[in-house]
Fold Putative sarcosine-dimethylglycine methyltransferase.
Amino acid sequence: MLEQTRAEHARLGGVSPEYIERTCAGLGHWIEGGAQGDLCWGLFHMRETGEGAGLGC
């Protein structure tokens, strides 16, 4: 994804070069963290119950 983002940045139109660079830097951190075994994933499974659920009530 990092290589693709760099390769396609010109095609992304209204996206600033600064944003692309920050995105690539962030992706690089994820790649490094994964390579070092520092990433751990979890999954939340939630269900709405009752009246007004999901509406902040």
Notes: The chain has a mean pLDDT of 82. Residues 17-35 form the longest helix (19 residues). Helices lie at 2-8, 17-35. The CA atoms of residues 34 and 43 lie 18 Å apart.
